[in-house]
Amino acid sequence: MTKSETPQNPVALENRDRTDDGRHFSPSAARNRGPIREVLEKILPKSGIALEIGSGTGEHVICFAKALPGLLWQPSDPDPTSRASIAAWIAAEGLANVRAPVAIDTRQAIWGVEDEAPFAAMVSLNMIHIAPWGSALGLLAGAGRLLRPDGILYLYGPFMRAGAHTAPSNAAFDADLKRRDPSWGVRDIDDLVGEAAPYGLELREVTEMPANNLSLVFVRTAG
Ligand SMILES: C[S@@+](CC[C@H](N)C(=O)[O-])C[C@H]1O[C@@H](n2cnc3c(N)ncnc32)[C@H](O)[C@@H]1O
User: What is the pLDDT of residue 20?
Assistant: First the structure.
């Protein structure tokens, strides 16, 4: 397994990747934000509010907000250290189309952003495998509740297809995740599709990404 084939997924923000102003840097975000941005430029609506779930350091939302200035970006993370980093990135970049981060844990029934709905898009990168399955279920339920008709749910990360890993490195990564926490693990696209269906969310596109990751594009078809 080469380093480039190994999914790189930060779990907790670490001080060594931090600047004095509170911005954290994630090496994996630096690698994957360009390829993800290229997909988002093609599939996201050009206006409305895009809600990011599990924003981590905040580097992704800054990159996406620059590339898609017609969208208003709402970052979120349940982790206060992550929210401080996101806020520091927003302050440093001075972008008008990124809101202050909010605390959203997808397992909660109320997210606190209901007044802003319906959203044009929801984006979640590298979250549902480093969290209990209930976090994925909560994310899908939230997308069903809060996305506008034709709204987009975009997921990025490693995924299984029809019960099989797409690469040996992903199988090793999955085993490592489960060793760290048995409730974590690389999710199967079929399971997500089945759980998304009752919310009117249809999988429209699967795109292969670097390092054996995938982009999943769900569209909310039900009104
Ligand atoms: C591996 S990090 C990924 C961060 C960033 N999206 C990236 O790709 O670099 C996972 C993030 O999801 C957040 N997270 C974990 N469980 C969550 C949940 N139930 N709801 C929302 N966010 C969650 C964590 O706090 C963390 O910031």
Answer: 80
**Rounded Cα–Cα distance for residues 133 and 127 (Å):** 10
Whole-model pTM: value is 0.94
Q: What is the pLDDT of residue 202?
A: 98
Q: How confident is the model at residue 14 (pLDDT cuts 50, 70, 90)?
A: low
Residue 73 lies in a domain: no
Tally of domains in the chain: 1
Cβ neighbourhood burial of 96 (10 Å; 0-12, 13-18, 19+): exposed
Pocket around ligand 1 at a 6 A CB cut-off: 9-11, 26, 28-29, 53-56, 60, 77-79, 82, 104-107, 125-127, 130-131, 135
Give the residue whose CA is nearest to atom 22 of ligand 1.
54
At 1 the pLDDT is 33
Q: Best mutation site among 127, 184, 215 for ligand 1, i.e. most ligand atoms within 8 A of its Cβ? A: 127
In this predicted model, what pLDDT tens digit does every residue of 86-115 receive, in sequence order? 999 999 999 999 999 999 999 999 999 999
Residue having the nearest C-alpha atom to atom 25 of ligand 1:
79
Please give the residue range of the domain that contains residue 201: 25-52+113-220
Residue 2 domain flag: no
